[in-house]
Amino acid sequence: MVVADAPDEPAWYQALEELTPRLHAWTQLRLRNETDATKEDFVQEVLFRAVASHSRFAGGNVAAWVFQIAKHVLLESLRQKRRDARMQRVDGHTSRFAALHEFPAQVTSMWRRAAKRDDCRELLAFVAELDPIDQRLVLLCGLEGVSVRDAAIQVGLGEAACSKRWYRLRQRLRGAFGEQNS
Question: Which of 23, 104, 110, 123 is such that its CA lies 20 to 30 A from the CA of 50?
Fold first, then answer.
């Protein structure tokens, strides 16, 4: 979703609501070895930060902006995980994310609705059957909205090869899920 200016609060929540299934799928694929509770905490943290920093959004691609937040939260959690492995936490917290009571109820319900959607579960099952490069292309080009040129660099393919591979993969996605989901 691309918007010219920062949307008002109801429109902002609507944009996040529309984006949450993609964020859910991205999280399921990125945090494959984590518990469902950790994945839910992660998505809620991303949505919470997006809501909290709404006033700093200057317009443009909402999805790209939210996925930037997600990447920062992921990096923070990886750094924290490394620190936690070296020392035991003394603050009494069991989560590396903010306390759940700080989340607006609307953010929590967005996650729950996305997690229950059949199309999300079907997409995750579809992606699980793909080879690792195609999985990365779904993450990068399909969910994050990264250009084929940038995705090619990240997956280690030439731009033309990556473009053809992404085209074929989109055709398979359209065949499996229809035009609106591709």
Answer: 123
Query: Which residues on neighbouring strands pair with residue 2, listed in sequence order?
Result: 61
Residue type for position 80: Q
**Two tokens at 156?**
């280690």
Phi, psi of 78 (to 5 degrees): -65, -40
pLDDT at res. 137: 92
Residues of the chain with pLDDT under 50: 4, 88-89, 95-101, 181-182
Which residues lie across from 3 on neighbouring strands? 60
Query: How far, in Å, CA of 150 to CA of 73, rounded?
Result: 21
For residue 110, what pLDDT is reported? 64
> Rg of the chain over CA atoms, in angstroms?
17
Closest alpha carbon to 106 in 7, 14, 4, 27? 14
